[in-house]
Structure formats: C-alpha cells, structure tokens
Amino acid sequence: MTDSPSAYDLAYAAAQANPEEFWAEAAMALHWDTPWERVLDDRAAPLYRWFSGGQMNTCFNAIDRHVLNGRGAQAAVIYDSPVTSTKRTISYAELQEEVARCAGVLRSIGVEQGDRVIIYMPMTPETLIGMYACARIGAVHSVVFGGFAPHELAVRIDDAQPKVVLTASCGIEVQRIVPYKPLLDKALEVAAHKPAHCVVLQREVHRCDLTPDRDIDWAEAMTTAEPVPCVPVLATDPLYILYTSGTTGQPKGVVRDNGGHAVALLWTMKHVYNVEPGDVFWAASDFGWAVGHSYIVYAPLLAGCTTVVHEGKPVGTPDAGGFWRVIQEHNVRVLFTAPTAFRAIKREDPTGLFYAKYDVSCLRALFLAGERLDPDTYHWARALLQTPVIDHWWQTETGWPVAANCLGLTSFPVKPGSPTKPVPGYTVEILDEDGRALPSNKEGAVVIKLPLPPGTLPTLWRDDARYIETYLTRYPGYYLTGDGGYIDEDGYLFIMGRVDDIIIVAGHNLSTGSMEQALSSHQDVAECAVVGVRDALKTQLPVGLVVLKAGVLRSAAELSAELVQLVRDQVGPVANLKQVLVVSRLPKTRSGKVLRKTMRAIADGDAWTMPPTIDEPATLDEIASAFATIGLARGPGSPIGG
Ligand code: COA
Ligand code: AMP
C-alpha cells in the first residue's frame, strides 16, 4: 500500500499541473475592482505577467477591506521601540485614517498614479504609513535602507526619479543617533534628479532644520490633509521598486507588481507560515529589505494579522532578552528573522539566562532566512525555543519563499542545513555548466523554471534588457538565482552560497562591486578587489585588497583607515568593511580576471585548486601572507594538486 499524498504534495502537484487554475483560486481571496483577462500572460515571454487586465488596490485589500469586514478595532500595527521607550498600537480603522491622510499629503504636493516616491526612513509606523499611502494612490514607492550612505541614496534617486522623498530627522542605532537630513541633503546635492519636495518626520530625540520651499513638516501636513480613497490600479502596475545589489556598482531595481504580489503573499501567510487572521506576526527585519516589505508591511495586513514594527536590535536594546520580551508582551505567534540575529543572541546569552526571564509559550514557530542557517544555530535555537525552527530560502527578486517547510500544508522532518522543499509554484532544478540537469546530491547552479509564480519580479525598473541578461540568458527557459546548491535523494534543497560577486553580510545582500568602486576612487589606489571572508557572527565580512599607484609611499595603517572610512562614506556603515590590506599585485588569470574565488578560499582556510589560467602563481603567496596578518588564511592553505 502506498502512502496517501500529503497536503504539500497535492498543492505542489496542483500548482505544477495547472498554475493558472491554482493562482486564480488563490486570487479569489482578494477584492478585485475589475476581473483579470488573463491569469498568466505569456504574450511577451520570457517576460511574463500575472492577472493582466485585472484592477485592484493593494492598500484596499490590506487595510480598507478588513475595516469593511469588521476588523476596524483590531490592532493592525504594534510599534515597539526600545530605543525611544515608545509603544503604540494602531488599529485597522486608525491605520486606514492615517494612510488616507498621508495619501492626501502626497496628492497635495503633486504625486499622481505612477509617480515614484523615495522613502528613506527608520523603523517607525510612519514608514509603513507612507508605503501604503503610495499604494493607495497608485504611486510607486522605493524604500532605501537607512544604513546606506548618500552616494547609494543618490544612485537610487537618479534611477527612480522620484517626485517626492519621505524622510525623518533621524534614525536610532544602539550606540548613536543617525541624523538623516545631512545624508539626504548630500545625496540630493550629488544626484542629477531633484525631487520637488521632501516630507520630513521630526523625531523628538533629534529635530532638524527644514530646507525652505523644499521640505514639508510631516505632522503639520497630516493635520490639514484631505483623506483620499483607494485608486484601482492594474494588477500589472508597479507597487514598488526595491534596489538590490548587482554584481556591478549599479544596484538593480527589482519591480513588484500589485496583483500577483498580493495574491502570492496572502497565500503564503496560511500555507507557509500557518497563521490566521488576528494572529500577531513579527518579522524582525528592516523596512529597507525585502523581508521588511513582504513580511512587516504587506503580507501580515493582507492576511488580517497584526504586524510588529520593532525599532531595536536582537542585542543591546537593552540586552539579549529583547526579542523574548517583545514576543511575550505582544503575544507573537510567528517570529521571522535572519540567522545572524540568533547568532548575536547566542553569543551574548549562550545558556539562555535572558530567555528564562520571559514566557514565550505563545510562539508557534521561528522562521529564518536571508542567509544559510548553519546547523549549530539551528540546533541552539531549536533546543532553546522548543518550537519548530524553519529555514526558508528566498531572494529580494522572488519576494516570497522559494523553498520552505510549509507549516500550513505539511510539516516535514527538518534536515539542518536545508530549507526543505520548493514551495508550490516554484520548479527548482540544479544544472551543470552546460545546462544539463544534475542528479541528486550533485552541486550545481540553482535555477527556477519559467514562468516564475506571481509576486516575483516581472522585470527590473525600466530595464528589461538587464533583467533578461542577468537572470534569463545563462540558461534559456530558466531564472538564474545566482546561488549554488543541490537537491538530495528526498527532494530537499541545499543552498550552498552565491556563485557571483554578491556577498551575504548579517543577512544583507551586498555587492563587492560597489565597495570596489569606492576603494578605487581613492587617489592612491591603482586597483583593488573586495572578497567576502567567512565570519562566525555575520556569515561573511568584506575584506579589501588594494594595489597602490607607482611611487605612492604611505603608511599601510593610515591608508587602510582612510579606505575604510571611504567605503563607510560612499556605501554606508552597513557594508561592514573594516579591513583593507595593501598588496603589490592582485592574482589574475592571463586574460586579466581577478581571482576572487581563489582568494576567498585562501582567506577562509579552505582547500583550493590552483587555477590553470593563473598568470603568476606567486601572487597567491603574498595574498595568503597578507590575510594571515589579520588572522585569516588558517587551514589547509595549499592548493589541491597545485
Ligand atoms: N541606519 C544607519 N546605520 C545602520 C542601520 C540603519 N538603519 N542599520 C545598521 N546600521 C549600521 C550599524 O549601526 C553598524 O554601524 P557600526 O559599523 O558603526 O557599528 C553597521 O551599520 C553594520 O550594521 P549590522 O551589520 O547590522 O551590525 P550591527 O552590529 O548593528 O547588528 C545584528 C548586528 C546581527 C544584530 C544585525 O545585523 C541584525 O539584527 N541582523 C538580522 C536581522 C536583519 O535585519 N536581517 C535582514 C534580512 S531578514
Ligand atoms: P536577499 O536578496 O538580500 O534576500 O539575498 C538573497 C540571497 O541570500 C540568496 O540568493 C541566498 O544566497 C541567500 N539566502 C537567503 N535565504 C537563504 C537560506 N535560507 N539559505 C541559504 N541562503 C539564503
């Protein structure tokens, strides 16, 4: 007798056999102003669209719909800010009112459907309100993470060409206040595009001067604004642009549409995260990342849950018990964060003394993503929490998990190190260099068969060509994830890491290219490379290697400090670049390609193979010695067969 298929098997098979039927059924859970003409529109393949012709509004579905259905008094947002000692609960009805007014503010300063609005703000409810205000009137928001420097903000302003910027007087880090106004002013000084207005949220801990004629006080504008209703938009119209690191210094503007996004996110809340309307869902991330967009702002409210907006860190606000306090106090059902947050807690509280002070029995599951969940962290979290600990894999581009243990369908036994199986809607394959499917347990390029499901990126902002070239060209018919990995004999996926020049630092995806761009702008630097080296807390940390221009005689320590500051100023503190080494040459192939992968293996102390095309093998000895000066390059240290 064979086992009957699991709920996961049935859902997976249904999404494979007839994706249009599967997603059309999921879409029925939303309010549509006009029904779609085509569920999957393949007329411009390989650029696919979902629900074309349909009209709806994301803000209406996430907020107004629930107020109309009797959820007005329920908490929509719980703001918990240990850094300002503030707590505030906003009901769905209050949120509707505030979002409608904020949309009125935007309208009053000329923002219309399709216009872009840059949001450079901290973890305050106003950020979420600003995002929904854009959605309400069909404007396209682009949130820029507060840890990025003015140059990165300027690059995004020039690409998105916003009519307006929403900002605040400051953000608050554990040890310091981060005044945003000088950063914004600097960005606007260097950007070629000039937005007409900046709406500034003044925070009591640090107020700022407003620039006459340009800046508008957020609170004042809200008091006089007329609330505006939701505008129906096409399902295929953009809801937002979120920039993510590319392999060059120019970030990629991931576009998210309205219809497919709402359908997919709502579906995941029940089927992946297993939460019900009314449950409290907490994604401890930042609005500036994809996790923040999808699982702080949109998905929990689409599902009628309560979302937690936490302005704090896993440690230091005030201690390693901060997360447990929030869970207990707000009755959190599901926590979603990055493994690095748990490693930070584990480092400060290895035996769970802080944990023991709180009752977190309300928590039903912990979901982790953003980087590989190493088995040690998995076991530690599992033993501490005594609840399911779910590793799931996704990217800014997909916007929702590609692989997960779907708790709302079937809970599979966990294999530490694996995000379990592809989520219904995704066909994940492992291909070799020549595009041939690899058998189980063989590592290769992780790809997703086209078309991607709804909610994933339809393209890059105003750049179909870059989208096609970056993601769809290497293996025709597939989306290239940029990750390497394998699928085992039970169908479990294992993601082993990036195969390009993107590094994962504390759960953030960063481009070594943009750091190299900053380093090479220094007058004394002839050439440079940045490699991501292994780190016990943050997974990877960037290390810079620079070759100086001929005749430059400078103290390496002094120069290194200057270069670290340069990256901080140009890319931002979030880059985490703290070490720059001066070397006489970079290892290269005969065709001039810098051997970053080999350098990384040397730094990590992994076994490595002498690249057959290397120009001068001796350069690697100098690199190993340089890494050794900062405590790296410990391990086999010699080339396999070299
Ligand atoms: N605005 C300004 N600066 C910021 C910032 C922001 N929003 N966020 C981070 N920074 C700064 C930090 O203050 C730090 O500056 P420093 O070099 O002066 O110390 C620097 O950027 C590096 O930040 P980070 O890598 O986040 O290190 P951290 O020590 O501040 O915190 C963790 C480490 C692990 C606690 C933190 O990264 C974390 O909570 N990560 C997991 C959650 C998460 O956000 N994941 C994202 C996807 S799920
Ligand atoms: P980002 O776009 O910043 O979300 O980063 C996406 C990248 O993070 C992926 O391509 C992976 O390299 C990595 N990543 C995210 N989640 C996981 C996971 N659960 N396991 C392994 N790697 C992950």
Offer a few descriptive terms.
18 helices; binds coenzyme A; binds adenosine monophosphate; Rossmann fold; GMP Synthetase, Chain A, domain 3; 5-stranded parallel beta sheet; 33 strands; 642 residues; alpha/beta; 7-stranded mixed beta sheet; 2 domains
Q: What is the topology, as strand order, of the major beta sheet? A: 5-4-17-16-18-19-20
Please identify the structural class as seen in this structure: alpha/beta
CATH homologous superfamily designation of the largest domain: ANL, N-terminal domain
Mean pLDDT: 95
List how many beta strands DSSP finds: 33
- Hetero ligands: coenzyme A, adenosine monophosphate
CATH architecture of the largest domain: 3-Layer(aba) Sandwich
The percentage helix is: 25-40%
How many structurally independent domains?
2
Distance between the termini: 54 Å
Sheet with the most strands, sense and barrel status: 7 strands, mixed
Shape: globular
Number of helices: 18
CATH T-level topology of the largest domain: Rossmann fold
Q: Strand content of the residues, in percent? A: 15-25%
Q: Under the CATH scheme, which class of the largest domain?
A: Alpha Beta
Poorly predicted runs of 5 or more residues: none
